[in-house]
Amino acid sequence: MIKKVTEITKTTQADDSVELSWFDMQKPNLSAVANSGIEFIVKAKFTHLHVGDILVCEDGYKIEVKKTEDAIYLLEFSDHITFAKAAYEIGNRHQPILIEDYKITVLIDQAIADIIKHLSIDSRVTITKTKGYFHPNGKSHHSH
């Protein structure tokens, strides 16, 4: 039986937990499986999930939200122009992004595969494919 989440809180103890990717935590409608194997659905209007949220199901069962590592690209640049152009191109695709000094971190996503392919042949860019906890700048993932 699939449980339906009816409330999101932070003020109670959980019976179970679920590990979600950054992208899954942004979804207003989500179906997932908790660590114990319990299936549940969330319809969180006007918000997204956060680490530490407690999902309270209609039967009182409580599931704590934890974060899993995401598949990410770490892009490192040796010059400011290549760095700025890459940030512009990725931003133009409305992708979540973490910008630091001459570094960009992005989720591995088909939407930017052509940009990554183009950057991979540029000697001024080092690309590392890895896993890590993704924390984009500001409100970088939004809808219009």
Task: Give structural notes.
By secondary structure, the protein is an alpha+beta fold. The chain has 2 domains: 3-67, Urease metallochaperone UreE, N-terminal domain (HSP40/DNAj peptide-binding domain, Sandwich); 70-132, Alpha-Beta Plaits, CATH 3.30.70.790. Helices cover 18% and strands 40% of the residues. The protein has 3 helices and 10 strands. A hairpin with a 5-residue loop joins β3 (29-33) and β4 (39-43). It is elongated. It starts with a strand and ends in a 12-residue tail after the last strand.
Element layout with pairings:
Blueprint: E1 3-9, E2 16-20, H1 22-26, E3 29-33, E4 39-43, E5 54-57, E6 62-67, E7 70-77, H2 80-92, E8 97-100, E9 103-107, H3 113-120, E10 125-132
